[in-house]
Amino acid sequence: MRLRRLAVLMLALMLAGVQALADEKTAVMIDGTPVSFAEARVYVCAAKSGYEDIVAYYRDFLGLDYWSIPCSDGRSAAEAVKSDVFRELVMMNVFCQMAQADGMTATADDEAAAESDAHEFFTSLTDAESAGFTEADVKAVFLKQKLADRKCSHLLNEMDVDEAAVRAAVNPGDYVIYDLCYLSHPLAGVDENGETVPLTEAREREIGRTMLDCMCADSPQEAAAAHPELTWGEASLTAGSREVDQTLLDTVQTMTVGETSGVIKTDYGLFVVRLLDNTDTLAYEDAVAQALYQARADAFSETYNRLYEQTECEINESFWDELTLD
User: Is 316 helix (H, G, I), strand (E, B) or coil?
Assistant: First the structure.
């Protein structure tokens, strides 16, 4: 309880500090609540930092100024992103106000994380980038974002979706996990001169017989140890994964647990595999969870847009006109 009271007290002090700044210099009034110049600058600066990689790519590899690139609606990328950032700033405040109205408060962990993140972010900025706000301002914004995110998450999880329909739309066969052990050999060997040469068909058949003999032994791994040219291993192949060798997957999908395959030739080499298990449903459940999240997110977008449209904003236009991303 002591930690909870401390968190409540520190949140109240933080909000009081933001209020004082907002009273002096207000960037926007959101449903009657002022947002300070400092908070707006922090939010825009943090948003801009998220574009550093793409800005560098356009500059270094394409020789273009990303922020000047025109969008389909005629605005520059800088203008479009600035508009999005303004919307996100408004909604952070809306959700934070809702969180406070519901009695949500920052935890001690929230405080510690916000302080650490704020210090890391603030110290990474140049003097020009941090002009107009302090590290304390950054912490206040990061802490406000945590409360807003928590409320937003609660609202999203409360979205009413047809879970049965979502689950039915996810095909279990696309997410079966096949656990297997294998022996393999590359499609090339080394001749007497140490040169790498492709395997002949006769050599492939010889290696295949050796792999099958090893796999049929009481201990395939021990049997394979007598043949250093062979590789023993265990792996898991997930149906639907782009990283899975399709030839191997096609084979194991026809096998029963405990069955050993024949010699399989792939682009990566020769294989003999034994299917150990195909009952793990983790990938399927993850896919269902992702589908449910997406369904709730789609439903929540309507609530999000409605809340934004209903929010009353009074904008300090001169401040926003001077605030740039490029």
Answer: coil
Task: Please check whether residue 138 is in contact with residue 120, taking contact to mean a CB–CB distance below 8 angstroms.
Answer: no
Instruction: Name residue, tokens 């909870």.
Output: 4
Q: Rounded to an integer, what distance in angstroms lies between the CA atom of residue 111 and that of residue 115?
A: 6
Amino acid at 168: A
Sheet containing 26-30, strands listed edge to edge, beginning at the edge strand earlier in sequence? 33-36, 26-30, 313-315
Structural contact between residues 147 and 99, judged by C-beta atoms closer than 8 angstroms: yes
DSSP-derived 3-state class of residue 119: helix
The encoded tokens of residue 50 equal 């998220």
Considering only residues 232 and 326, tell me which one the structure prediction assigns the higher pLDDT: 232
CA angle 135, 124, 63 (to 5 degrees): 135
pTM for this entry: 0.68
Residue 17 banded pLDDT, cuts 50, 70, 90 = very low
Give the model confidence (pLDDT) of 229-238 as tens digits.
Answer: 999 999 999 9
**Residue 190 has what pLDDT?**
77
Angle 246-247-252 from CA coordinates, rounded to 5°:
95
Exposure string for 216-240, b = 16+ CB within 10 A, e = fewer = eeeebeebbeebeebebeebebbbe
- The reported pLDDT for the residue numbered 197 is 86
Structural tokens at position 30 = 């959101």
Question: Do residues 234 and 227 lie in contact, with contact meaning Cβ atoms separated by under 8 Å?
Answer: no
Beta-bridge partner residues of 35: 28
Least Cα distance to 93 among 158, 28, 7 occurs for 28
pLDDT digits (tens, 9 = 90+) for 113-144: 999 999 999 999 999 999 999 999 999 999 99
